[in-house]
Amino acid sequence: xxxxxxxxxxxxxxxxxxxxxxxxxxxxxxxxxxxxxxxxxxxxxxxxxxxxxxxxxxxxxxxxxxxxxxxxxxxxxxxxxxxxxxxxxxxxxxxxxxxxxxxxxxxxxxxxxxxxxxxxxxxxxxxxxxxxxxxxxxxxxxxxxxxxxxxxxxxxxxxxxxxxxxxxxxxxxxxxxxxxxxxxxxxxxxxxxxxxxxxxxxxxxxxxxxxxxxxxxxxxxxxxxxxxxxxxxxxxxxxxxxxxxxxxxxxxxxxxxxxxxxxxxxxxxxxxxxxxxxxxxxxxxxxxxxxxxxxxxxxxxxxxxxxxxxxxxxxxxxxxxxxxxxxxxxxxxxxxxxxxxxxxxxxxxxxxxxxxxxxxxxxxxxxxxxxxxxxxxxxxxxxxxxxxxxxxxxxxxxxxxxxxxxxxxxxxxxxxxxxxxxxxxxxxxxxxxxxxxxxxxxxxxxxxxxxxxxxxxxxxxxxxxxxxxxxxxxxxxxxxxxxxxxxxxxxxx
Length: 493
Prior knowledge:
The longest helix is centred in the middle third of the chain and has 25 residues, at 231-255. This protein is 30% helix and 24% strand. The chain is globular and about 70 Å long. Strands 1, 2, 3, 4, 5, 6, 19, 20 and 23 form a nine-stranded mixed β-sheet that branches. A five-stranded parallel β-sheet has the order 8-17-9-10-13. A three-stranded antiparallel β-sheet has the order 14-15-16, with no helix packed on it. The protein has 493 residues and is an alpha/beta fold.
């Protein structure tokens, strides 16, 4: 790839990156742009994860793009349907030609003198350069090349196959096999009923339980509304219905956690066999929404447990043995295949090293602005979704804001926009979330501040007001080419 200049570079061709390009074409039609994608395919997470049963854990009326309504029939869609939706969007909107595959951004250097980024891109061991005026990182926060697997004693003794869902073998034959799925999160509760359809036995082995809630695979209201309204009107109505229902459920859970726990427990009890130990296997020690709720369409996990094709065991692993897993209780679980649905690793901004006027940016020393920019880092934005709602709800708003900011700068001849750190905004962890994958890596991320606009909000209505309609000038320093950004002003280093 020859050195070239474009106005905007988007990092990542997944759900967020394709959505960002769609917004940019719609709201900034005069801008040139490119998408650089480290892998060889569109789709990001939805192309990477190929394990049986992979699906969304948010409804598609909020996970779908606002600019391109979801038209599928299911509320919680399968991974292949979502991947096709993302690819169809890229093709229909003419985004495909802008994507550069096999390009991993390793370093981005900002120069105030020229008011532009120089990007160092790894293309299979060769480093190319690209120049842009605005850098928009849509790579999410998962590490794509490696999932998280704990170290267990004697793991090498197991004679069967150990598989991590992030790297599911294409031709894995699990029909008639005994499978132990280690984990209790959304990946595990998705895998277990899918595997149970053809495996001889499936055990979900969890150290501690998660909250699991059944939802209809199809939304009856959606089917009724679509028969009476235009596709756009139906999508808007259903999107807002689901936004408000999700927000209400979250607020009720946080304000009255005991009542929420009883509700979820009762709902699980109704779907499980009589006498099932719900307190041991489906009643966590933490409060609802300290970690993300696991949604199961039509209660398929509970159905698999009810018909005996799946079993839940709550215990801790002592060691792996040649034939399976020995638990702390002394029980032996025999297995042909062990699936380690033990979580993901996080990686801020895909591991990109940012540099501002010859000073490397140390991410934990920075503070996020409106949860989409960094203090002291000019013309840089990133897309991070919600932990308590659909990912796309937030990244759609982020892309709208980025487009508003770019248009504002163009209208006034501004070449550099940088948030100026507020010293009175006390730093705190970027994600206030108790999931293990967050706690393992949050110290490597930027911080958030104690007050707006430095606080990371997980509230769609507040973000809607701030990002779609709010000011793009508050606590922002605008400059023209040649004006150097100082490290003191930046809050870098």
